[in-house]
Design goal:
The protein has ten helices and eleven strands. Helices cover 38% and strands 15% of the residues.
Length: 313
């Protein structure tokens, strides 16, 4: 197959490009900063059509991962960039696919599990899950993430591409031993003895092992009957306190100092990021994948953490 991955130079994009390339597919990554890789990498500003657009006439699958990182302070400027980078890239892709003589048969577009409400009481799935933004117990600033996710998906699904199957990838945190990702950040805290519960520790953590993430993409490519929003996450989210406890066990670290909420807010300000990334309760499950027969290799965090630590070492 010929696969185009806009915004595919980050950690998740590299995981996908590496797997698809190893399977013998012809992979092209679009990036603001093209790099020399085993697959083709072309420049794109994420906001306008480029010379790459001609590829859509011979592309089988588009996997759009473009979007500014949310690991930053939500200043007015950063908010505008986060929203614009997702909306514009998705809109431009939709317009180019609509003009293609032989459009791709499948368009997978990044989304986020953060679209669901701040949930403790019950899991949120991709059939009856409740979208967030109106929870009385969630800070007002968290509504920005919901607004971005909603507008992102609205732009995606409103694109006039009747001959292209579309799937929104509502993904949780992808855990990979590769440097620079969320797993390496959490592991560093554990090694420093700082990997205790964050805040109350009761907030749920949704996650997915990188092998299950890439296998789920393969599954979605093959299953032509699946479209619309799909949750990409482990079927067993767990409270933050348990999540960090299992990660400490995997690293053989007995000490894990907890972090009070006020300290997390202070640390987030100092590190130029947002506390929402740690304190929001994401209790999300992949009902549509499970109902379709997808089999997770790493459904539970203890075994996933052990495997990730082994690979990281």
């Amino acid at each position: 197959m010929r696969v185009l991955i806009p915004g595919g130079s980050g950690q998740v994009g590299t995981l996908l490009a590496r797997r698809l390339h190893a399977q013998g597919h012809e992979v092209t990554v679009l990036s603001r900063y093209p790099q020399t890789m085993p697959w083709r990498s072309l420049p794109w500003d994420g906001a306008s059509p480029g010379t790459w657009a001609y590829l859509l006439d011979t592309t089988d699958i588009v996997i759009n991962l473009a979007g500014r990182s949310v690991d930053c302070r939500y200043t007015e400027s950063n908010r505008a960039q986060i929203l614009r980078s997702r909306i514009e890239s998705t809109r431009i892709l939709g317009e180019c696919i609509a003009r293609a003589k032989t459009p791709p048969s499948l368009w997978l577009n990044a989304s986020t599990a953060t679209i669901y409400r701040h949930a403790y009481d019950r899991p949120q799935d991709d059939i009856t899950g409740e979208l967030g933004g109106k929870e009385p117990n969630a800070p007002f600033t968290w509504r920005f993430s919901i607004d971005v996710a909603t507008k992102w998906e609205d732009t995606f699904f409103s694109a006039n591409t009747p001959n292209t199957r579309k799937v929104a990838l509502r993904s949780a945190m992808t855990m990979s031993p590769d440097p620079g990702g969320v797993f390496s950040v959490l592991s560093r805290l554990v090694k420093l003895g700082l990997g205790g519960a964050a805040g109350s520790g009761d907030q749920y953590v949704s996650w997915i092992h990188h092998r299950d993430f890439t296998r789920a993409i393969d599954f979605l490519i093959e299953r032509e009957d699946l479209s619309g929003p799909i949750n990409l996450c482990s079927p067993q989210p767990l409270p933050n306190s348990e999540f960090m406890s299992e990660l400490r066990k995997a690293w053989g670290q007995s000490i894990g100092l907890p972090a009070k909420e006020w300290l997390i807010e202070f640390g987030a300000f100092f590190l130029r990021t947002e506390s929402e990334l740690i304190l929001k309760s994401r209790r999300v499950i992949p009902t549509r994948l499970i109902n379709a027969g997808f089999d997770f290799q790493f459904p539970t965090w203890p075994e996933a953490a052990q495997h990730l630590v082994k690979d990281a070492r």
